[in-house]
Amino acid sequence: MKKTIYQKQPDLNYKSLVMVYFDGENRYIAHSFIHNGREGKYLSILYKDPLPTGDFIAGWNYLDDNSFSMVMIPEKNQEMAVEDFYAAWNPEMLAQGIEIIEVKGFDEVNRLMTDPEINEQEFVFFGRK
Fold first, then answer.
1. 3-class secondary structure, 104
2. pTM for the full predicted model
3. Cα 13-90-121 angle, rounded to 5 deg
4. Do 15 and 128 contact (CB within 8 A), yes or no?
């Protein structure tokens, strides 16, 4: 697991980012990925329903299939996706740097989320180049 700490505002050169917010009780996620749409290079999907407990990927798939509270946002870059995610859950965090855990595939997230040091953080970002 490689952790990369970025100070505001780096070039977040990731094909895909999974962003996790933990409010002490529930987790909320967003996924931003290369889309090359008309209004932006990236598309960010913000899930307003909490992530089901248990397996991270299974919970994410459940939200994809069952959540009616998703917001899709065209983004010109990953920096804007991160700022929008912070703005949705804790705007005060915008002034701080972020830490991204680089993964080869999002299947690694299940294992990483069992680490208490990662699992209990307010914000966690997973990036795939």
1. coil
2. 0.84
3. 70
4. yes
Cα dist from 96 to 37, 38, 52, 99, 101, whole Å = 29, 31, 28, 10, 16
How are beta strands 16-22 and 27-34 bridged, if at all?
antiparallel
Q: For residue 9, what pLDDT is reported?
A: 43
Q: How far apart are the two ends of the chain, measured CA to CA in Å?
A: 14
The number of beta carbons lying within 10 Å of the beta carbon of residue 24 is 6
Q: In which element (H, E) is residue 63 found?
A: helix 56-66
Residue 8: pLDDT above 50? no
Q: Residue type at 78? A: Q
| Contacts of the segment 117-124: beta carbons below 8 A, 24+ positions apart | 119/22, 120/22, 121/22, 122/21, 122/22, 122/23, 122/90, 122/93, 123/19, 123/20, 123/21, 123/22, 123/86, 123/89, 123/90, 123/93, 123/98, 124/19, 124/20, 124/22, 124/99
Amino acid, single-letter form, for residue 125 = F
